[in-house]
Design goal:
Mean pLDDT: 82
Number of strands: 8
Number of domains: 3
CATH architecture of the largest domain: 2-Layer Sandwich
CATH topology of the largest domain: BirA Bifunctional Protein, domain 2
Radius of gyration: 42 Å
Helix content: 40-55%
Length: 316
């Protein structure tokens, strides 16, 4: 048996959430009448207003069970009453309702207890360490009702008892890690496409001005803010990672495009370089003679100069 407890300021929202869920079933109510969520909330508020210095009069606990536990509606009501007694509530002085949520949308049937910390007598139930006290109360009630003991279960059994939302959060986290850090997507559109392949919907929340102020992810009917999954999946962090991936992708692309292909070495260039070290072997593969273009004129000039020099020697 696992109990999750929170305290809060407003009754309306939490009561509507509990009662307006699909297949919700009101098992017990004390100190209130009617079944309309708003009307029930008004009755809670009327008592809580007698102690306006109490900032968080709402006590909300959800209690779920292991697969192997067969829990009837009567057992749920008895467990809820015993739980409230363990936490210091007076069933004759504090208003409360017990609502069952059936297992169509959850791993297993579970129930919610919503109570007013402010009693008719003006006393206020202490919310000090409410989460730890809830855990201790669950340990006691597991033994009393012969239920599966959560703290003694191995990894496999305990996994079955984790609320389905934790399973979905883990699934979303794994897919985000893969998309951002392995596949290195570089835009929100790419990220949405990759996630949709695994039936995960990405939602960008915008103001009326068009400015994006938040991001969330949805699987089935479960929706989670990015930051509630992991801080690195907040809008700001995801945006920074997408920009980083985009820069990296652009850098790789530019590097590839600007890399000049190595020019092929001409066999003629090679032969020409090999033979320029020998002045007597000047090759020209364009004109078919044994010397290069432009050397013919130079050779003629040298012959004329040599001839004039010889003539001068003869005249002397």
């Amino acid at each position: 048996m696992i109990g999750i407890t929170n305290t809060g300021k407003g009754f309306v929202g939490v009561i509507r959430y509990i009662l307006e869920q699909e297949n919700a079933e009101l098992l017990l109510k004390s100190g209130v009448c009617g079944e309309d969520p708003n009307y029930i909330a008004k009755q809670f508020i009327a008592v809580a207003d007698e102690k306006r210095d109490v900032s968080k009069p709402v006590w909300h606990t959800s209690i779920s069970f292991a697969y192997d536990d067969e829990v009837t509606n009567k057992m749920m009501v008895d467990i809820a009453k015993d739980y409230l007694n363990e936490l210091g509530f007076d069933l004759n002085q504090n208003q409360f309702i017990v609502v069952k949520h059936n297992k169509n949308n959850h791993i297993h049937s579970h129930f919610h207890v919503l109570a007013n910390r402010v009693g008719y007598d003006g006393k206020v139930v202490n919310d000090y360490y409410c989460k730890n006290r809830t855990a201790r109360a669950c340990d006691i009630l597991e033994l009393k009702y012969n239920l599966t003991i959560a703290r003694e279960q191995g990894p496999k059994t305990y996994k079955d008892k984790i609320p389905i939302k934790e399973k979905y959060k883990k699934e979303i986290s794994e897919n985000l890690n893969d998309a951002l850090f392995q596949k290195k997507v570089s835009s929100f559109n790419e990220l949405a496409d990759v996630l949709s392949e695994n039936n995960i919907k990405m939602l960008l929340h915008k103001q009326s001005t068009g400015r994006v102020y938040g991001i969330s992810f949805q699987v089935d009917k479960w929706k989670f803010k990015g930051s509630s999954i992991n801080k690195k999946f907040s809008l700001k962090q995801i945006q920074a990672k997408l920009e980083s991936n985009q820069k990296q992708e652009f850098s790789i692309k530019i590097s590839y495009e600007t890399q000049e292909p190595k020019e092929k070495q001409s066999q003629y260039d090679f032969i020409e370089r090999e033979n320029t070290s020998n002045p007597g072997m000047l090759l020209n593969f364009n004109n078919g003679y044994g010397y290069r273009d432009g050397d013919e004129e130079e050779i003629k000039k040298r012959k004329k100069k040599r001839k004039r020099s010889n003539d001068n020697d003869l005249t002397r």
